[in-house]
Structure formats: structure tokens, C-alpha cells
Amino acid sequence: MGMRKTLILSLLLALALPQNSYAASKSITGSVGQTLTASATSVSNNSVITVTGKRFDESVGIYLAICVIPKKGFAPTPCGGGVNKAGVGEGSFWISANPPPYGVGLADPFKPGGRFSYKIRMSKKIGKFNCKKVKCAVTVRADHLRSEDRSYDLYLPITFK
After folding, report:
1. What is the distance between the alpha carbons of residues 3 and 132, in angstroms, rounded to a whole number?
2. Who wins on pLDDT, 135 or 25?
3. Residue 131 and residue 9: Cα distance in Å, rounded?
4. In whole angstroms, what is the distance from residue 41 CA to residue 62 CA?
5. How far is the C-alpha of 122 from the C-alpha of 66, rounded, in Å?
6. Measured between alpha carbons, how far is 106 from 83 in angstroms, rounded to an integer?
7. How are strands ordered across the β-sheet holding 26-29?
8. Measured in Å, how far apart are the chain's first and last C-alpha atoms?
9. Backbone Cα Rg of the chain
10. Which residues pair with 54 in a beta bridge?
């Protein structure tokens, strides 16, 4: 009986102690070593997650957004929001070290090392699509200057609780 009580106590303690923060983080690495990480990929509607990137090619502008996962070879679409300058929202973010003149002030520059970090409010609805019924993801893709280039696409699937 003593061994059994010890085992049960150990299991209860393991369940009661907080999990390591990285245990809930999800990450994907692209073809040139760039990494996209989300603080959570199992989310509640209206929750806020932090999405970070590192080692992105700073010569290529990107969009970061929550999108419906497309068929292979197609651009991620539809996506939530437009350019979001408030810093938190269901919008998308344009990140570019060298935006065209009309993009100055709209695009955020990369941080050194091809890094970025944004807080995104999760919305299960993208237009008429419900992410509980279709597959959605935190998505990175080349911006509109390379809109046909699928080599920069990254998908970090999310599920709504």
C-alpha cells in the first residue's frame, strides 16, 4: 500500500505543478532556418497569443496573419484583418525592412536578426469561415511584392477549444 500511495501522490503533484512554459509553445522552422513560434496553438475565441519569429530573411517582406489553410501550392486565404497598427487584434501584420514608399509607416521593420513579436487576438471567424469547421493557422507568407512566391509560406495550425 505504501508504494501505491507514493505513486498516487507523485501523479497528483505532477498534475498540480505548473507545466514548463515551453511545453505549450508550438514552433515551425522554414526552409532557410527561419522559425515561427506561437505561445499557444489550442486557443479560445478572443484569447490573445504571442507570435514570434526569428532568422527571417530581412530582404523579403512578409505578412503575418491568421488564415484558412489553402490547398497545397496556393496562397493562404482568406486571412483575418488588414494592417494592424494597434499592436493587438485579429488583424494581420506587414513586416518589411525595405517597404516601397507607400508602405513606409504601414509596414513594421524587422528587429535585428530577422526577428518580430506580436500579440494577436484569436477570432474563430475569418469572414464567413469558422475555424472550428475549417483548418486555420498562424501564417507567414511573402508580401504582395512576391505574392506568387510560396517558398516563404509557413503554417502553424491552430485549434479552437
Report:
1. 44
2. 135
3. 39
4. 21
5. 8
6. 7
7. 26-29, 35-38, 48-54, 116-121, 88-89
8. 39
9. 19
10. 35
Q: Which residues of 61-77 are buried (b: 16+ CB within 10 A; e: fewer)?
A: bbbbbbbbbbeeeebbe
Q: Which residues sit opposite 154 in a β-bridge?
A: 140
Q: What is the pLDDT of residues 61-83, one digit of tens each?
A: 999 999 999 999 899 989 986 54
Q: Read off the pLDDT of residues 30-41 as tens digits, 9 standing for 90 and up.
A: 988 999 999 999
Which pLDDT score, from 0 to 100, does residue 159 have?
A: 94
This prediction has a pTM of: 0.78
Q: What is the pLDDT of residues 105-128, one digit of tens each?
A: 889 999 999 999 999 989 899 999
Contact (CB, 8 A) for 39 and 27: no
- DSSP one-letter string for 36-85: EEES-SEE-TT-EEEEEEES--TTS-EEEEEEE--STTS---SBS-SB--
The continuous run of DSSP H or E covering 22 comes out as: helix 21-24
Predicted local confidence at residue 82, as pLDDT: 53
Separation in Å, CA 120 to CA 17, 49, 89: 28, 5, 5
Give the cell for residue 23: 511545453
Cell numbers that stand for 6 in this block? 507514493
